[in-house]
Amino acid sequence: MSEIMKPTTPEQVAEAVTWAASTATPLEIMGAGSKRKLGAPVVAEHQLHTTALSGIKLYEPEELVMSAGAGTPLGEIEAALKQSNQRLAFEPSDMGPLFGEASEIATIGGAIAANLAGPRRIWSGAARDHFLGFTMANGRGELIKGGGRVVKNVTGFDLCKLLAGSYGTLGVMTEVTFKILPSSEESRTLIISGCTAQSAVKAMNKALAMPFEISGAAYATERALLRIEGPSVSVAYKAEGLAKVLDEFGTVSVVGGSESKQIWTDIRDISAFAKASEKQIWRLSVPPSKGAEVAEQLSNQFSGEFILDWGGALVWLALDPTEDAHAQVVREAADKTGGHATLYRASEAVRQSVPVFHPRAGAVSVVTSRLKGAFDPKGILNPGRMG
Fold this sequence. Notes:
By secondary structure, this protein is of the alpha+beta class. The protein folds into 3 domains: 1-183, Uridine Diphospho-n-acetylenolpyruvylglucosamine Reductase, domain 3, CATH 3.30.465.10; 186-269, Alpha-Beta Plaits (2-Layer Sandwich), CATH 3.30.70; 271-353, Alpha-Beta Plaits. It is 32% helix and 25% strand. It has 13 helices and 18 strands. It has helices spanning 10-22, 74-83, 108-113, 121-124, 159-163, 197-208, 232-246, 257-269, 271-275, 291-302, 327-336, 348-353, 362-375, and strands at 4-5, 27-30, 46-49, 56-60, 65-69, 86-87, 131-138, 143-147, 171-179, 181-182, 186-193, 214-220, 223-230, 251-256, 280-285, 305-309, 314-319, 340-345. A hairpin with a 4-residue loop joins strand 7 and strand 8. The longest helix has 15 residues, at 232-246.
């Protein structure tokens, strides 16, 4: 009989994992479940939810640091930060709608466990770059603390970097500490209309190579999109200068306020593909100069659609569903560039038969297996999720 566990303290988490380890009982680890369908299906009857491990534990605006329970909703954190005119620098996506779940339920622990980062990654880095410290229960049920409250406290082997992107397979995080940044006074978006993906990438790369401090560079619906953030006077000056530099690529317009914000929310959450619920979604990471080429090749071959982010380095590809999700062709295209491809959304049956994450090279696979064995020797934490 399946059971849903909702521990309210780190000690209760440790007790639950200790029991599971002693009985070799697999556990599915999750927060609110907004990204439960990301990754291969977990082979476990019992679930351990972290949503009761909620609440902001420490917030020092002047030190740019916050600690919160792993199950704390991102909305709660962002609301607290807004009061001090601050923000999460890595701009985590709200992936609930993309997977057919509710919006605005994602947790801070889930965002870090999946190493989510939105368009601002090209400027501020990924979740792991702002992840400072944690408390977690490993697969033996031992409570472990790692990292600290400032970057300089992280010495030796940086476990934060290891946990970010581990999808709950190495431990159950109960509390996380992360760096925050001041919010921008103003944001404006330059739109180059009617351009091709190839010319958009050239325009984005040109802009990113100049001192305009671009915090977003994407291509969608035949438009190149470039975001500038900062003090109002500086943003206005940079937007005017950048528009002149990019006029060779097409008609340039500038929007601000809520219109600019909505553009980047839609890019962040891949809103266009969330509406196309029947499509299989691939996420490819490639060199920026190859993004348009790979995206056009695959979308033309399979009559798909694509969105480019991070100046062309991130390709979101939506394809009609097939039993193999075109995995061999998609991964070969990514491999040729030195990149990798993740099957981000597909049915459970497809995710059971097709590797979701890009196959690892021999040495990397060995190291990954050893790390899993060290943190979770019985293999009870999210078994199967990462293949």
